[in-house]
Amino acid sequence: MKQFFDRPQLLLLIAALAPALLFFRFRQARLCAALEGLSRGGGAFLARTVWRRALFFSAAWACLVIALSGPRIGTRLEGERQEGVSVLYVFDISRSMTVEDVPPNRLSFAAGYAGLLSSRLGPVPSGVVLAKGNGILAVPLTTDSLSVQDLFDSLSPALSTSPGSSLSLGIRAALDSFPEKTASARAIVLFTDGDETSGSVVEAAREAGERGVSLSIVGVGTPQGAPIDADPDPERTEIRQTSLRESLLRSAAEAAGPAGLYVNALDSGSAVRVIELIKSLGSGTSELRYREEPVSRIPEFAFASGVFLSLALVSGGLVRRRERLW
Description:
Number of helices: 9
Largest sheet: 6 strands, mixed
Helix content: 40-55%
Number of domains: 2
Distance between the termini: 50 Å
Order of helices and strands: HHEEHEEHHEHEEEHEHEH
CATH topology of the largest domain: Rossmann fold
Strand order of the largest sheet: 4-3-2-5-6-9
Structural class: alpha/beta
CATH architecture of the largest domain: 3-Layer(aba) Sandwich
Oligomer: single chain
């Protein structure tokens, strides 16, 4: 229901017709029985005409309610000129990102890497999403590069109290943070070691591709990895090995489609590859793209309501003329 109406809750007002028609039917039957004795055949004519008038009023009310609910039926193609690019940086801030197999640690290395990308991309709208047990939009899209850099400098697992790591929720939070109607291309850059405890980063990446959003995944860590205390309780210890899960992250980048990219943060020239991909999305001359938009049917239902109301009033005039003939 919600995909066809802006305000579907208003449709409940149509239900008011049921008791109204029942009450009207009861009153109309008593009135017509009384008039039948005064005018031969007049009661039957009045019953048909008045009931027809009631149906017209009911149809007018139903069409008016539907118009007020904001019906959207069918779609049409609308063109828009696409220029530039907007970027959302998604950081995995789970405990595994504090491992020091990449100096000074994975998260700090990712922050410096993102700062390099941001400075080379220039003043493009940028934002930051934090991924831990949930996805949180920490900095909405903005051209204020200082606010974005300030968050880069303060990245820490302490920024979110959610346990675990869900890369898929981070990606989906970024997807939902882009404006629904934008004239710019959209890009997500995910920094992670691939150590997720819930969700599926591959499925989220596939969703990004289906929604036309570029996804660059920057793998931070080493295949050898390092030990980490996975138990947040300081009184207990649970040591396990955490390493860069490159095969998973490569699969996610492939699932994102042609605009998907995986790079290892330690590889020479990896930042250049990410920058070139993002710049290619918004470079060159502007491009005319088409999108499907639902068609509002408010005018049609409002017009239908007016037509039924006019028919109801005309029917009332017929009753009055017949009454004068009596």
